[in-house]
Amino acid sequence: MVRKLAYWPIVAGVIFGVVAPLLAKFGNPGNMGMCAACFLRDISGALGFHSAAIVQYIRPEIIGLILGAFVSSFLFKEFKPRAGSAPLARFFLGVFAMIGALVFLGCPWRMFLRLSAGDWTALAGLAGLIVGILIGIYFFKKGFSLGRNRPAHPLVGYIMPLFGVVLFALLLWGMYGEATPVKFSTKGPGSMYAPLLLSLGAGLLLGFVFQKSRFCTIAAVRDTVLLKETHILQGLLAFVLLAFITNMLLGQFHAGFEKQPIAHNDALWNFLGMVLSGLALTLVGGCPGRQLVLSGEGDSDAGVFVMGLLVGAGVAHNFALASSPAGIGANAPFMVFAGLIFCIVLGVFAKERR
């Protein structure tokens, strides 16, 4: 299987490295051509989970990721409805992974996109992500497990793809209907987006290749350290290299620590935010984008984690946890440490019984 997949992560990385900067060029926020956490945060706001008016928009890229993975899994006969692996723990891991990401201001995807565009404030986040993953790997070596999932009824596997369809219907209703309950930003990052068809098409393409390739920023490090397998790491390196080249060609590379788009320069909390997010994502088995893809191929446990991300975004903005270019939220330190404690306790005591 590894040999069959060896070139697919590189293909996915190359496509991702070109598509994400292009999305930013055509309207998405700066250094945010594709960010699973930020885009789910915008969807959370659009659905009314939080009232931060500048980050509310149903991002077609997220819809495309889910449906593209759904199509790919069917074509390659990999659609396997499954569920039952510690759903409540996965939900709260999603909540804390989102809180950590919003303290940093981006998921691992956006962290690498920020670096590829010269945003050196993301270096502290990179260090934090690696530390978080290494802590998670330590727990895996000590026997950590959320338990095994099991085959489920096919209807269970269709829930997240149907959720994607509903989101698309709500998006169209919000854009073209009257008296819509969906909220849209009129200023700020939520008001910045690429054309609908371009965004949706990019999401479908990336969802397709990510499903086939198993592309995942967390797995790139985890598999290299644990299994000595580097095929996903090669895809990640291809992504960063192509994103750098594309940003240079588009005039989007601006090196420095100051005046970077939608970023702050608090190195300590950039680091700690990504330690929390990286640890939570390692324990759950993959980055937010990977979880969206898994939910599209029938993994209900991944779908529960995605719901946790949506709720976590609401919590972060409703309780002054999310950062802004001015700095971290007033209550962020408390929740970052609470999240780290939750993840560490889970890592120590959650072990599969035989």
UniProtKB/TrEMBL annotation:
Protein keywords: Membrane, Transmembrane, Transmembrane helix
Pfam families: Sulf_transp (PF04143)
Species classification: Bacteria, Pseudomonadati, Campylobacterota, Epsilonproteobacteria, Campylobacterales
Name recorded for this polypeptide: Uncharacterized protein
Transmembrane feature ranges: 5-24, 57-76, 88-111, 117-140, 152-173, 193-211, 232-255, 267-289, 301-320, 332-350
